[in-house]
Amino acid sequence: MARKLRFIGTDSKVDGCPALHTDEGTGEVIVQGTPVTDPEDLAQLRHLGAGEAAVAVPRELLVNWGPKERERVPEMVDREAFRRLFETFQHTAWRLETRGGYASDREDPDYQEFLATGSAPCDLNEPWFVNIKAQTQAGKTVGRVRIADKPMTTGQRFLLDYSRYNAAVGEDIRYLWREDAAELPAEDFWIFDSRLVALLHFDDADTIVNIELITEPAEVVRYATVRDAARHHAVPFGQFAATE
Fold first, then answer.
1. Nearest to 190 by CA among 26, 48, 77, 37
2. pTM value surpassing 0.70
3. Quick one: which of 2, 12, 222, 237 could link to 173 by a disulfide (CB 3.0–4.6 Å)?
4. Boundaries of each DUF6879 domain copy (predicted)?
5. 205/155 Cα distance (integer angstroms)
């Protein structure tokens, strides 16, 4: 009976070799690579049994795509290391925002002004805006998709009003109703250069309690898939605001 194989991944940039597959029935890993056929090479291998074959693959293939321990130890970073990511990324920085509000927004004086007047002021000379403007003017892409509830929370309405300032420094701000985002995870994260994810963990008061860095390729690909789906379905903030 034929195996049921599932493709795991490849580090190949041109052709399809080398690669890893897994047998979904047995859990065995199938390694695809260049056969080792030189008799002198084969003579150096230990425990090569009859009917077995040896293949050569780059070390990176196993490091990046090989089975990992089921219990992954999270890698946490402090706020300063997280901040530097926005200065050192090479081409893209993108965020998914899924919460009904954020404690950091409610602590902002601009939020209090929004509550009083319905319009938030902003200083585009703040470090965040200065840096993002420099990054986007250098040709890099910065953007985010925000999930909104019906009706929108006060925090979400504040961010929608504030989106014009993000856009003024080059950010691509898009929106998606929560009812249309059922297939997206309820996670807040930044993804940098499609290779590094900063997963934001919050408490019940909407305060960030820690920031987890994820670089495992299979996990990063999952978050990149989420990003692509969110961007595909979301609409620019101006268009969204006009229908809200």
1. 77
2. yes
3. 237
4. 81-241
5. 13
